[in-house]
Amino acid sequence: MPPPPVTRMNIVGLNAYHGDVSAVLVRDGRLVAAVEEERFRRIKHCAGFPTHALAACLDLGGIAAADVDLFAVSRDPRAHLWRKGLFVLRYRPRGTVSARARNLSSVRRLPAVIASTLGLDETRVKARTRFVEHHPSHLASAAFVSPFETAAACAIDGFGDFVSTSWGRVDGPRLSVDARVFFPHSLGLLYLAITQHLGFMRYGDEFKVMGLAPYGEPRFAREIDSLVHLRDDGGFELDLAYFRHATEGISMTWADGEPTIGPVYSPKLESLLGPARRLDEPIDARHEALAASLQAVFENAAMHVLRHVQKTTRRTSLCLAGGCAMNSVANGKIRERTDFREVFIQPAAGDNGTALGAAFHAWHAATGRPRDFVLTHGSWGPEFDDGEIAAALDAQQAAISERGCIRRHWPDQAMLDAWTADQIAGGRVVGWFQGRMEWGARALGNRSILADPRRADMRDIINTRIKFRERFRPFAPSVVEEAIDEFFVGAVPDPFMLQVYPVRPEKRAAVPAITHVDGSGRLQTVSPRTNARYYDLIKAFQRITGVGMLLNTSFNENEPIVHTPDQALDCFLRTSMDVLVAGGHSVERVGAKAA
Fold this sequence. Notes:
Helix 7 crosses helix 15, helix 8 packs antiparallel against helix 12 and helix 18 packs across helix 21. The chain folds into 3 domains: 148 residues, Nucleotidyltransferase, domain 5, CATH 3.30.420; 163 residues, Nucleotidyltransferase, domain 5, CATH 3.30.420; 204 residues, DHBP synthase (Alpha-Beta Complex). The protein contains 22 helices and 23 strands. Strand 6 and strand 7 form a beta hairpin.
């Protein structure tokens, strides 16, 4: 019997009082808007309540707060209460109980916070609030927007609602959870512990270790492997003697502002791996070897989980989510090291994406209707028209002139694309600001810094003169979809830049700026379906150079990706970028070259 018809339903999904808080709007089972709070607050991985992101979603959807039918929150304070009680009795953690109680209290008060923020009646909001457990939210964030009608689903992260890893299957609008790995055992915490041991202490620094790993040899793999025991049921256990989170507890702040997590490793880890790196200590060969060893052990453990998921579900398509799904190096090896033949990861695979999953989970729970949406691109945030961009440039005209820049307006897009491509081919670095802001951690061609991948010196130029970041950090290639096989080995289309593949050996000298030290590249494929404007620019560059690829990195400088034209212009003016292209406008530093 078919499900009954439903009237229009607006569902707001929220990730709140956690890292990377965010909001999404789903209408009638289709995504309308998805926005992260950090882009407004200018605080990386911003915690607290996503006030600005929520307002932006309502604005993009053209609705008032009273038009929201359900508020879906990606946490459930009631989840696994008996397990939490047993954990406290067994480990008697110091400090953790009170900290977690405060955080759960904030989550429970969310209906009141939503009502106060939006000017709604609290009783009405409470009746319309749905608490969706953290890991089902992760699973749903990939499964319910994937192109697969049936697939396996897996989420691997630090932890949320007392779970660190879960897996199951999706069948149309139905999502089932088959198994879980519970706190305190977590591959995300394993990666975090070594990340902190390597001196990267800020929330979200794990990606730096992934970039450092190819510089070293995994000569500490045996030692790090001893920290995690892989079980026959697809799960795993940490050797908790090397960690603090189970017994001593760890300090965590999820209130308004930048999230923090205190040290999660115990002194015993330094006895095993040597002294932790100080913040001011240069990175040496031992640190590189530790990073390489961690990546190797993590990949082995993750593939252990995924092979079991594939074997038990008998599915060849995988929907992957969780913070560990941002490990693009491991992602690129899934089809090689497991029997999964297709992999889908949405661009906000971390905690930001749980808002997306909670909204779709609530939609299908409320209606039971068939799925009617596939996430094919990442452009779900606010955008700015040429009039708004012109106003931002007008407001800073004095600063533009003072720095010797020429400003132009281009009424013809094709002419602007051809001119921009020519600038890039000439060795200039371009800030590219177009269309709707991206959803997720990656700049996908709307808020990007672009450069020529053929320039061997371009990575150092951008890292040291524009991004002001570690020299070992690689840059991604944006490749027109039809040229994947020309440049990469074993790659498949991925518009979200979440899988790393080997660059063909014969092509590495041709595109050295995007080829990492191990010969790999974090691939983004671009097509007219996923980002037509960006595709046109890359094709214009290809007509000049014969290379259907651009170097792409996020438009920022030690800050969240730029959101507004004002922020784009400010980033351009305070760095050594050569050209800013925003909408139909360009700002060019006259006579200046990046090299």
